[in-house]
Design a protein that fits this description.
The chain has 986 residues and is of the alpha/beta class. Among the domains are: 143 residues, D-Maltodextrin-Binding Protein, domain 2, CATH 3.40.190; 99 residues, Periplasmic binding protein-like II (D-Maltodextrin-Binding Protein, domain 2); 124 residues, no CATH class; 158 residues, 2-Layer Sandwich (Heat Shock Protein 90); 122 residues, Response regulator (Rossmann fold), CATH 3.40.50. Helix content is 45%, strand content 21%. The chain contains 33 helices and 36 strands. The strands form 7 sheets. The protein has an 8-stranded mixed beta sheet, with helices on both faces. Strands 25, 26, 27, 28, 29, 30 and 31 form a 7-stranded mixed beta sheet that branches. A 6-stranded mixed beta sheet has the order 1-16-12-17-24-18, sandwiched between helices. β14 and β15 form a beta hairpin. α5 crosses α11 and α13 packs across α18. It is globular, with a radius of gyration of 34 Å.
Length: 986
């Protein structure tokens, strides 16, 4: 048992998922084939952070000057806006007399957002609110669900909340337990609501709908008389029935939610609704979702506080002054009730999630006083001595009732059962005496078994669930006494199929919190709080959850060899580039010597610089390569140690990305020097380009503790014609350089301003500044020389090849600009340049929702002569349902289209460099077949050569798109989504 002062709070810090990172690391290998020859809630997720931080309506994307002017005029004319609500869960009074709930939180937020007071107005009756709303005495309310008829009559926003439904019945009526019991019943609904239609569209149920006008009196009267079997309304209205003691309720129809909008009857208020819609569409929906959840929890907490006795309130007050929480015993292997997830380094399960909700309601902090491997007998003993105040589960028995207390209502239930392997014969009860039976010591399993089989002594006791399950695996026992939940642990969490419930007993196993016998007050508080927790969704989530840790782990192990092999090839390719460059340098030196002494000295200096660069490049390659080789060896030797293997994979991923960056810089510089570097000329949105850069730079800033600031408002909405990829490359180089030389706590800033603008073109100034170490005049003089850094000391301390700035300068010059620099040692540095762009226009594209596209049944022809590359594509697409057929070269691919398989593929991914027949030639032959499908099937080029001329060459050969290697998972999935998206109706 841990020292009770070393409290581990319930909310641990889970480790991030690594499968995606491992797959991305695999993609490094894709570089080999070219060098060696051969994304209401979903919408807000990606942009929600930005939306949440907006403090003023003026900052919302797409807001027009006309809308701003209209809102300012309304504010000046009215002074404030009114927002109506009824006495419900969304607006209620606290014991202090203050008001709380979602409506009040929303009004406060709207006030800050629009810069004007939104005054909540409470109505005792819905009819009174509706009257004032219709006659203009009330500006807004949030109780209407949008329908075509209402949208023609009122100004209505996108949904601001989604309410759950609640079923109200007479306390003596028990005819409705599940949704299927609704069949043939008479249900009441609020007049004018669309709830009945929503239920019918989700559940295939036949019921009679009766619509109530006088709410709640008429509904209560009909429930009392039996004219209604039940009344259904949004859960937010449940306080209206508090005065009727004979009515009980619970959340029901869990698949149906009622979306409500902020509505106005006065058309003059339309600009307010329009701007709110733009905010919600830009990612702000999650802000209101959070406000609604906060309001619901505040309502439950308020109701709970009112129900507490003076003694219980005093108990809470005492714990609020403590520096530690209530000591709780969390079971580490009792899935799905409470278990320690080693992959995510946290206690998880049904009981854990319920305690989190109770913490939110009461303020009680529950501290885990158990370790990830504390056995149950030790937890049980400490609960008895009082070292633990409570445990996540204690099964009831008469013998235990002398020493312990239980929560009144179980939070989950299952059946006792005897588990066995699938191949074990199905038994009947009288055969159990002949079997070896295992179970946990000092558990109710043992007590129940002895009640069921009092004469049996064929038992083996274990300390933990895990030990007992392993004994069953090793055939040390034939049966395991437990429950259906133990089978879920074996099948779902431990991912070990081949087990079954051999005998299920009628005795129900109720899961309840267990308490030390002196903890009656705590037990009572938990009891009352649990009544306000919706436990059913929590239980359902954990009972149905399936893990994939073992499969992902095995895939990571397989990828190690691929990564190692690929990186060795990357190193060899880089070495070839450097050797060729060195040879060219020597030839240049010889020619220079023949042309005169001055030229000779210049060439010697250049050769020395390049020699220094080669030595530094060797260091830049060998350092991460050594890490890759060493960590691959460690991972190979520690296959059974999952933590060590995963740590080694993380190091390999980091080093792989560094190697790839080094090689890309060398190749870019070589192409620039040879004069064969071409720029693309395509329309792009500058704001999108910046977002792509910011994702990379912001992560680097986060890792180093540097603040990133972007002031690009003037240019954000500009559509430019140019090479977005290379503009991004300049930005990443300059910003990455700024981060590298800026200490933690410093700032890196990007500015983009409009200097000139006409109908056809625009002149932009870009500036990257930092608060880093700065540079002297002498250092700045060497700044843009290829293969050089400002001094060797800085190179040794900060790393890098010295190519990033030289490449950036060359790209800026090719775009028609000049990079300039200002710097002061110890103060910071600023790079800036000006570029003129032609204005462009973007065609609206219907973006397919990648998570919705069904790839099951689709067929892909994958053509690549390198087996490793084909393996990687298979791994990336392993869980998409796509069927993949492979060919090793273009000749085989052409043969497939000339045979019986012709026309059966949905897309072809074609490597461009292969023996016997390359991808370009194969594509031309496929297009030449006299079949319509051969003309139209999408063919996607795959190549490590990703310059403009390489893309143009692929398109000229008849290919439809180009996928650069190493392949990024997001890019591949987006391309598949786009290819397989349904046609857009115009």
């Amino acid at each position: 048992m841990k020292n009770p002062n070393d409290a581990t709070h319930l909310c641990a810090h889970p480790r991030s998922k690594r499968l995606r990172a491992a797959v991305l690391a695999l993609c490094v290998v894709f570089l080999l084939s070219g060098c060696g020859g051969g994304t209401l809630a979903e919408q807000s997720e990606s942009q929600g952070g930005a939306a949440e931080n907006r403090q003023a309506f003026r900052d919302v994307p797409g807001v027009t000057e006309a809308e701003i002017a209209a809102i300012e005029a309304l504010k000046a004319e009215r002074g404030h806006f009114t927002y109506g609500h009824t006495t419900e869960t969304e607006g209620f009074d606290l014991p202090s007399g203050a008001s709380a709930g979602f409506d009040y939180e929303l009004c406060a937020w709207l006030g800050g957002f629009f810069g004007v007071d939104f005054v909540p107005v409470r109505y005792g009756a819905w009819s009174d609110l509706l009257r004032d709303f219709e006659n203009g005495a009330l500006d807004f309310h949030g109780n209407f669900t949008a329908t075509p008829e209402r949208e023609r009559q009122y100004v209505m926003s996108l949904p601001i909340a989604e309410r759950s439904l609640r079923l109200f019945t007479h306390a003596d009526f028990h005819g409705i337990e599940t949704e299927t019991d609704i069949e043939g019943k008479t249900l009441g609904f609020l007049a004018g609501s669309v709830t009945a239609d929503s239920i019918r569209s989700t559940y295939p149920l036949a019921f009679e709908a009766v619509f109530i006008t006088d709410f709640p009196a008429e509904a209560a009267e009909m429930l009392a008389s039996g004219a209604l079997d039940a009344f259904v309304i949004d859960a937010a209205w449940r306080p209206h029935f508090d005065a009727y003691d004979f009515i009980v309720s619970r959340d029901f129809f869990l698949e149906v939610y009622t979306p409500v909008s902020m509505s106005a009857a006065d058309p003059a208020l339309a600009p307010v609704i329009a701007v709110l819609d733009k905010y919600l569409a830009a990612g702000g929906a999650h802000t209101l979702v959070a406000l609604y959840k906060e309001g619901e929890r505040a309502y439950a907490a308020n109701r709970l506080r009112v129900s507490l006795t003076a003694e219980e309130r005093a108990y809470l007050a005492r714990w609020e002054t403590q520096s530690v929480g209530v000591p709780v015993g969390f079971e580490s292997d009792n899935y799905p009730i409470s278990f320690y997830n080693k992959e995510e380094e946290a206690f998880q399960g049904i009981a854990v999630d319920i305690l989190k909700e109770i913490t939110a309601l009461t303020g009680i902090v529950f501290d885990a006083k158990t370790e990830m491997d504390t056995p149950w007998p030790e937890i049980y003993e400490d609960l008895g001595t009082g070292d633990l105040a409570m445990v996540t589960q204690l099964l009831y028995s008469d013998a235990r009732a002398v020493n312990f207390l239980w929560s009144s209502v179980p939070y989950a239930s299952t059946q006792y059962a005897l588990l066995s392997k699938i191949e074990h014969p199905d038994l009947v009860a009288n055969q159990v005496i002949h079997e070896r039976v295992g179970f946990l010591r000092q558990t109710a399993y043992e007590e129940v078994y002895h009640v069921l089989f009092p004469q049996n002594d064929n038992i083996v006791l274990y300390e933990t669930h895990e030990e007992a399950l392993k004994a069953l695996e090793r055939d040390e026992v034939d049966l395991l006494m437990g429950s259906r939940y133990m089978l879920l642990m074996q099948l779902h969490y431990l991912e070990k199929p081949g087990y079954k419930v051999n005998i299920q007993f009628p005795q129900q196993m109720d899961s309840r919190f267990g308490f030390n016998k002196e903890e009656e007050t705590l037990r009572s508080i938990v009891d009352k709080a649990q009544a306000y927790v919706e436990t059913e969704p929590i239980v359902r989530t954990w009972e149905n959850r399936v893990f994939d840790y073992e499969a992902a782990y095995n895939r990571r192990r397989t990828s190690l060899l691929l990564i190692f092999t690929g990186l060795l090839t990357v190193f060899l390719a880089a070495a070839v580039v450097l050797i060729v460059r060195d040879y060219r340098n020597r030839q240049a030196l010889k020619r220079s010597m023949a042309e005169g002494k001055a030229a000779e000295e210049q060439a010697i200096a250049a050769s020395k610089a390049k020699g220094s660069f080669l030595a530094h490049m060797s260091h830049e390659i060998r350092t991460p390569l050594s890490a890759v080789i060493g960590m691959a060896d460690i991972a190979k030797k520690s296959i059974e140690d999952r933590e060590k293997t995963i740590s080694a994979i993380d190091q390999i991923i980091f080093s792989s990305k560094h190697l790839l960056g080094v090689l890309n810089n060398a190749l870019d510089m070589s192409k620039i020097e040879s004069g064969r570097f071409a720029l693309a000329s395509d329309p792009f949105l500058f704001g999108q380009a910046h977002r792509e850069v910011a994702v990379i730079v912001a992560q680097r800033c986060l890792e180093k503790g540097v603040r990133y600031v972007a002031d690009i408002e003037e240019a954000e909405a500009c559509v430019l014609v140019g090479d977005k990829l290379r503009l991004n490359q300049i930005g990443i180089n300059l910003l990455g350089n700024a981060v590298k030389f800026t200490e933690a706590g410093g700032e890196v800033r990007l500015e983009a301003t409009v200097l000139e603008e006409s109908e056809t073109d625009i002149l932009l100034r870009f500036s990257v500044s930092d608060t880093g170490i700065g540079m002297s005049e002498e250092q700045m003089a060497k700044l843009f020389r290829p293969f050089e850094q400002t001094d060797s000391g800085i190179a040794a301390q900060f790393g890098g090849t010295g190519l990033g700035l030289a490449i950036s300068q060359s790209l800026v010059q090719m775009m028609g600009g000049i990079i300039r620099v200002e710097s002061t040692p110890g103060v910071g540095t600023r790079f800036y340049f000006e570029l003129r762009f032609e204005k462009g226009h973007l065609q609206a594209e219907a973006e397919a929702e990648e998570s919705v596209v069904d790839l099951t049944g689709r067929r892909i022809l994958l053509v690549d002569d390198v087996l490793v590359n084909r393996i990687i594509v298979r791994e990336i697409l392993a869980e998409t349902g796509v069927e993949i057929e492979e060919a090793e070269n273009g000749k085989q691919a052409v043969a497939l289209f000339d045979g019986s398989a012709a026309g059966t593929f949905d897309v072809v991914f074609m490597d461009v460099e292969m023996p016997e027949m390359n991808g370009y030639e194969a594509t031309k032959k496929i297009r030449a077949f006299p079949r319509p499908d051969a003309k139209t099937i999408p063919i996607v080029a795959m190549s490590a050569r990703a310059y403009k001329e390489d893309i143009d060459e692929a398109l000229a050969a008849g290919m439809d798109a180009h996928l650069p290697k190493p392949i990024e998972v997001d890019v591949l999935m987006h391309m598949l989504s786009r290819l397989f998206a349904p046609p857009v109706e115009h």
